[in-house]
């Protein structure tokens, strides 16, 4: 047995609490980008600018034109368990925003050199607060339009073991790029600009109509994806499923084009994966993977998002119902295509 250094129980200092929380949620620069972009979307941003330097290890800067934060709330925004998004247990049962844990900003700030600048429509000036490895500095007036900017420099500078695990600049940036693409898919009405080391890498212009939502999909996944997929639109059992499913003939050797969103949140879920696999069972060779971009909308009360710190998993309260609805919708769509096109060459 291991000898345990005995001491009295004590509460941990807040910076350490935040660093422990950061260990759960902030794995790499892309996790920072995910949390910050989700905050911008929750704030109603129509335009989000993302600037990255050195794969995110030197700088991650996100600027949005959302509602902003009141000057009096800036210090709270960077303190643990403070959120404007839920206030009660009932709210937790019907989360309508991407965030709700009140942990992202304090976690990120505890493992970086961090600055938050924000201005609301009601304020005459913006305010900026800086946090260095978890310690907030004075807040002061700053120049900024309505909206919010967050700067994250030198991620993990105070956790050398963690920083050592960052991969090559290119690899880290690719993770960020993939993440931005997956979020952009779900928000065709929002403009996203992603820059790396001073060069614009992605520019997704906002789309207002259904057809333009298709344009966003083709911008992100390529014309090829749209040409080889079927449009899905089904509702029933209080749920709406929309999006695109790939034709069996356009199946892939890897599951690299699978995007499933539940109420606007990209998730990985076994119930969903099973329903999709079953729907394609008769039309795909073993070992092939369908491509799809799907959006499921249901009553927030029907889905628990408080499953995992990274919020990329959900639990459906009536998982059987969801499974069967998905299976039927996809099966029908594929069957119609089959009837229309004659026998599938791949089947
Ligand atoms: P959560 O998103 O779970 O509430 P965060 O730590 O990510 O927790 O953010 C804390 C709070 O700071 C949010 O609830 C929100 O009120 C505010 N906030 C963070 N980012 C933004 C932003 N880009 N625009 C407006 N408000 C923001
Ligand atoms: Mg958040």
Automatic annotation (TrEMBL):
Free-text function comment from the UniProt entry: This protein is involved in the repair of mismatches in DNA. It is required for dam-dependent methyl-directed DNA mismatch repair. May act as a 'molecular matchmaker', a protein that promotes the formation of a stable complex between two or more DNA-binding proteins in an ATP-dependent manner without itself being part of a final effector complex.
Section covered of the full-length record: 6 to 352 of 611
Record key words, sorted: DNA damage, DNA repair
GO terms under biological process: mismatch repair
Gene: mutL
Residues passing through the membrane, by range: none
Keyword DNA-binding: no
Lineage, broadest ranks: Bacteria, Pseudomonadati, Pseudomonadota, Gammaproteobacteria, Lysobacterales
Single GO term (MF): mismatched DNA binding
Protein family (similarity comment): Belongs to the DNA mismatch repair MutL/HexB family.
Superkingdom of origin organism: Bacteria
GO CC annotation terms, alphabetical: mismatch repair complex
DNA mismatch repair protein S5 domain ranges (all copies): 217-335
The protein, known as: DNA mismatch repair protein MutL
DNA damage as UniProt keyword: yes
């Amino acid at each position: 047995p291991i000898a345990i250094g005995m001491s009295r129980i004590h509460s941990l200092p807040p910076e350490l609490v935040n660093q422990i929380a950061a260990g759960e949620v902030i794995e790499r620069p892309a996790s920072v980008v995910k949390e910050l972009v989700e905050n911008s979307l929750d704030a109603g941003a129509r335009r989000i600018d993302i600037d990255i330097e050195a794969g995110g290890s030197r700088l991650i800067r996100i600027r949005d034109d959302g509602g902003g934060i009141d000057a009096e709330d800036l210090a709270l925004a960077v303190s643990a368990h403070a959120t404007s998004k839920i206030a009660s247990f009932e709210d937790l049962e019907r989360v309508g925003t991407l965030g709700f844990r009140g942990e992202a900003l304090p976690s990120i700030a505890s493992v970086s050199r961090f600055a938050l600048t924000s201005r609301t429509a009601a304020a005459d000036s913006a305010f900026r607060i800086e946090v260095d490895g978890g310690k907030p500095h004075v807040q002061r007036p700053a120049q900024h339009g309505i909206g919010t900017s967050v700067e994250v420099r030198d991620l993990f500078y105070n956790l050398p073991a963690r920083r050592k695990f960052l991969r090559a600049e290119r690899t880290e940036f690719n993770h960020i790029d993939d993440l931005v693409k997956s979020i952009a898919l779900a928000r065709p009405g929002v403009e996203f600009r992603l820059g790396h080391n001073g060069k614009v890498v992605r520019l997704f212009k906002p789309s207002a109509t259904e057809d333009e939502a298709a344009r966003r999909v083709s911008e992100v996944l390529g014309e090829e994806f749209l040409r080889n997929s079927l449009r899905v639109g089904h509702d029933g059992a209080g749920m709406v499923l929309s999006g695109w499913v790939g034709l069996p003939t356009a199946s892939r050797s890897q599951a690299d084009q699978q995007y499933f969103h539940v109420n606007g949140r990209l998730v990985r879920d076994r119930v969903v994966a099973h329903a999709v696999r079953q729907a394609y069972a008769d039309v795909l060779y073993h070992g092939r993977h369908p491509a799809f971009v799907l959006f499921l909308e249901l009553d927030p009360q029907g889905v628990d998002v408080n499953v995992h710190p990274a919020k990329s998993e959900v639990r459906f309260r009536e998982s059987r119902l969801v499974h069967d609805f998905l299976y039927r919708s996809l099966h029908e769509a594929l069957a119609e295509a089959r009837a229309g096109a004659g026998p599938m060459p791949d089947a």
